[in-house]
Amino acid sequence: MNFKKDGFDGQKAIVIPRSVLNRFCAADTMINGTYLTDIGYYPKARLHKRTRSQGAEQNILIYCIDGQGEVTVDGIKYNILSGDFFTIPLGKTHTYRASEDNPWTIYWCHFKGEQSDALLKMLYTKTDGYKSNVSFFPDRIEIFNRLYRSLEQGYSLENLTYINLLLLQYLSSFIFSDRMATGVSDNDGEVLEKSIIYMQKNLGKGLSLAELASSVNLSISHYSAVFKKKTGFSPIEYFNHLKIQKACQYLQFTQMRVREIAFMIGIEDPFYFSRLFTKTMGFNPREYRETRYSASKIPR
Length: 300
Prior knowledge:
The protein is an alpha+beta fold. Helix content is 45%, strand content 18%. The protein has a 6-stranded antiparallel sheet with strand order 1-2-9-4-7-10. A 4-stranded antiparallel sheet has the order 3-8-5-6, with no helix packed on it. Strand 5 (69-73) and strand 6 (76-80) form a beta hairpin. Helix 3 (138-151) runs antiparallel to helix 4 (157-175), helix 5 packs across helix 7 and helix 6 crosses helix 7. Mean pLDDT is 90; it is low at 1-6 and 294-300.
């Protein structure tokens, strides 16, 4: 089989000059964590193939919206269909190719930076591999098109800063694809979303772990495991964070006394409230209020 080297009808691609990357992107602390190096769109890319035995110098994300192809990363082969995307960390041996009979249409980008390395590791953990699938959303394509149109305007530092902040939004649309339509949509995510809504509606109560688990019809052990996996916190710890978040608002925007605020968030013991607030925020309630309104005459 022969493979095409001279482009595809309707293709678009921009490679940012290395001199520009070194002068601006890699040197600017605002964007050097994640910055774009190459970007493109290949429609019906018949005979498209790339092989990099030493890997690429950048991270790669390729999003297939039509057709088929395949990718092999570190010896693991994946079949790619419409709606699939795959990532290739820098330095990883890989090959990818379009199907000859039903060639893919792809959006692709290369990017660098320590933050981007961490983002790919996070994505790999979430998807359990280099390939995953996302629902089609026009907003994702629009973000890509804005990236491309902006790059066509040149390489000023201001423009590159805008582009690379926009790049994070584009990458987030894959990492957090379940949030693009209606919030968190997987089963565990729905449990989490319902539970947090329940917590927010009951900030004035001292709910137990059993009550929180019951609100989403799960056993305490299953509920606790799901919650900790999705948030990194236990349910009660998360509930307390929401309570303290609300307490901060009371401290900033009302003249309520500390004892009254504690009662409003379902904590009867003001001393316990002060200890919890200090542990969470790094200030006790009075200090927190003073740091926001040092010149005010709000009653203490």
